[in-house]
Amino acid sequence: MDTRVVELTDAAVDTITAMRERVWQLGSYYGQSDDKVIKAMDSLFHNLIALNNRFFGSHAVVSKDGELSLFVAEYADSERRQSGNAGFVYGLIWHEDRRKCEKCGSTQGYEYYLSDNDKAEAIKSCATVTYTHHGTNKRDVTAKVTWDRHEWNIPVDAPMPGTWSFHS
What are 55-98's pLDDT values in tens digits? Predict the structure, then answer.
């Protein structure tokens, strides 16, 4: 009978707890039947089960890889584990959604990557945008958006939704 050893680091156990906690926070904030909650919960449980079924070697080490992500290193045997020579590596990665303004379409954190045309459209369509041009009153399509005045699709005080996916 073949046996497998799955070693969870303390940090991995804490991360799995944090993953479960994130789904609980989303459910508490948005409601258990909200699409954001269902997508997060489905992706977490589907990928945790997939992670458990993907072990190829006789020894796997699961460790933390970010606040809500896991990293798995597979070893053919305990001797390779001792040497640190991993065979197959993969992870369960958290992908956080982005806040987006319902009025102008600007995405938080990506204001400097908008094209000039998109910036101009954002300024025209979103009354909450403030713009300055080095201390003058001149309107400028490269103006910085005042992010706290947008109408976000995800409230600023809400836990950030997202999904987990398997990467190898």
Answer: 666 788 899 999 999 999 888 766 565 666 667 888 999 998 88
Segment holding 64, helix H or strand E:
strand 59-64
Angle at 85 between CA 165 and CA 4, to 5 degrees: 65
DSSP reduced 3-state for 88: coil
Q: What are phi and psi of 88, to 5 degrees?
A: -95, 135
Tokens of 158: 């809400």
Q: Which of 53, 92, 52, 60 is nearest to 76 (CA)?
A: 60
Task: Identify the residue whose tokens are 């944090």.
Answer: 18
Outline where 90-140 has alpha helix (H). 116-125
What is the arrangement of strands in the sheet containing 59-64, beginning at the earlier edge strand? Answer: 5-8, 59-64, 70-75, 89-96, 162-167
Q: Which one, of 149, 106, 103, 155, lies nearest residue 130 by Cα? A: 149
